[in-house]
Design brief:
By secondary structure, this protein is mainly alpha-helical. Helices cover 82% and strands 0% of the residues. The mean pLDDT is 84.
Length: 444
């Protein structure tokens, strides 16, 4: 029996959601375990993780072009081309991974901007040095995830992410607390654990993929394709704007964390809790958005444009309904959520109002997450890039500096000022992206 659009979305989205929640749970685990060490470790992990995510996601997000490209090929029945597209993705990944490693090993500009206390800076640099070792494994996993998601098989992605999560706590304990004879590294130990975990999962995922009969049709085990510059250019036409969109999104959050770091470890730690919660909640609409992009891409590849448009709006309605529920939980449960993250009462006090603001932020975040991913299913990424650059940087980050750190618009509000500006920026971006999606889907 043919599934409804809602059923199709849920069928693809729930394994992606579980996989993404497992990935985010790694960050939650890092934050919670660092919070049990000291406010300095908590702040260092939060700041370093923000820098790491900015560098890595800004580069690895170029590979988010892979699922819609694969979906178009798969929907059109061009199975052999899928494998060749993966090979070109490998060549692109090698260059992107090298760039990420270099930036993580030489993070001076980020450190200077944050104006860190010496004790925090030492731990931030140690975390980023260790993180550089995880980059090749993370890129290899992203290629596997892009392939499996694009052909509508997200369950292997979910299973490998759950395996990774299962290793995270024991690996963290070994390297953070010095168990089993390992050095006691404190907060930076969680970055060492991430590197070990990423390499192990990459070997397991690709070892499984290259032997599984359902993947043999793509010719992945055949002769490795040389760089095809025409194919790489086409890939980058979609991928680079996606990457720049992520740079606008992620760096707005990262520089927000770096500016807030000037207010001291307690405020920085509280902001890290709120940011971590916002990122965790974002996984729900992101999963729906990814599923929407795949179904839209496959429908367009098969020439079914009306089905593609219908799928877009089913995804948005479903995403917003779930977002209302999550936002209500954050709004009414803010003090209890803060207490789950840390036992430090001073950090809890600052974090509680920030979590309430996350509730408002998430509503706009959910709308834009589904809409922008649906546009990627249409291979449209330039206009969203421009929208995000202007609004997330100009209104969100720029407004945050004015409200949070200056008296230009009244008494400086500190961390809440950054979140208020962020809410304005994300809601404006969400509205414009959704309007653009409506226009694009009507013209097909």
């Amino acid at each position: 029996m043919k599934r409804s659009s809602t059923s199709e979305l849920m069928y693809l989205a729930w394994p992606v959601l579980v996989a993404q929640l497992a990935m985010m749970a790694n960050a939650v685990i890092d934050t919670a375990m660092a919070g049990r060490l000291s406010a300095i470790d908590l702040a260092a992990v939060g700041i370093a993780a923000s820098i790491m995510s900015t560098v890595l996601m800004s580069l690895i997000s170029v590979l988010l072009a892979l699922p819609p490209i694969i979906a178009h090929l798969y929907g059109a029945g061009r199975r052999a081309d899928v494998g060749r597209e993966i090979h070109q993705g490998v060549w692109i990944s090698l260059l992107l991974a090298l760039a990420a490693i270099l930036v993580l090993r030489f993070p001076g500009p980020f450190i200077a901007l944050a104006q860190l206390q010496p004790a925090v800076e030492i731990k931030v640099r140690a975390y980023l040095d260790a993180s550089a070792w995880s980059v090749p494994g993370i890129f290899a996993l992203r290629l596997f995830f892009g392939l499996s998601t694009g052909i509508g098989r997200p369950r292997p992605v979910m299973l490998f992410n759950l395996m990774s999560l299962g290793l995270k706590i024991p690996l963290n304990a070994i390297f953070m607390y010095g168990l089993l004879g390992a050095p006691e590294l404190g907060g930076p130990g969680c970055a060492v654990a991430t590197a070990v975990d990423a390499w192990l999962m990459a070997f397991l995922a690709w070892g499984w993929c290259l032997r599984h009969p359902d993947y043999l049709q793509f010719g992945l085990r055949g002769r490795f394709a040389a760089p095809d510059f025409k194919a790489i250019v086409e890939f980058l036409k979609l991928g680079v704007p996606i990457g720049l969109t992520f740079i606008a999104d992620v760096t707005a959050f990262t520089f927000m964390a770096l500016f807030i770091a000037r207010l001291g470890p307690v405020v920085s730690g509280a902001h890290q809790i709120a940011a971590n919660l916002a990122a965790l909640a974002f996984m729900v609409p992101l999963a729906l958005g990814n599923a929407t992009a795949v179904l839209v891409g496959q429908a367009i590849g098969a020439g079914q444009h009306e089905r593609a448009r219908h799928t877009c709006w089913v995804g948005i309605r479903l995403g917003m309904a779930i977002a209302v529920v999550l936002s209500a939980i954050f709004w009414f449960g803010a003090p209890y959520i803060a207490a789950l993250y840390t036992t430090d009462l001073s950090v809890q006090k600052v974090a509680t109002p920030l979590i309430a603001l996350v509730a408002l932020y998430h509503l706009g975040d959910a709308l834009q997450a589904v809409a922008v991913n649906a546009l990627r299913g249409y291979k449209k990424s330039v206009v969203p890039m421009l929208i995000y650059a202007v609004l997330l940087w100009g209104v969100g980050l720029g407004g945050g500096v004015l409200l949070g750190l200056t008296d230009t618009l009244g008494t400086a509000r500190g961390a809440p000022g950054f979140w208020i500006a962020g809410i304005a920026g994300i809601w404006l971006a969400a509205g414009l992206v959704a309007a653009y999606l409506n226009a694009v889907s009507r013209t097909k």
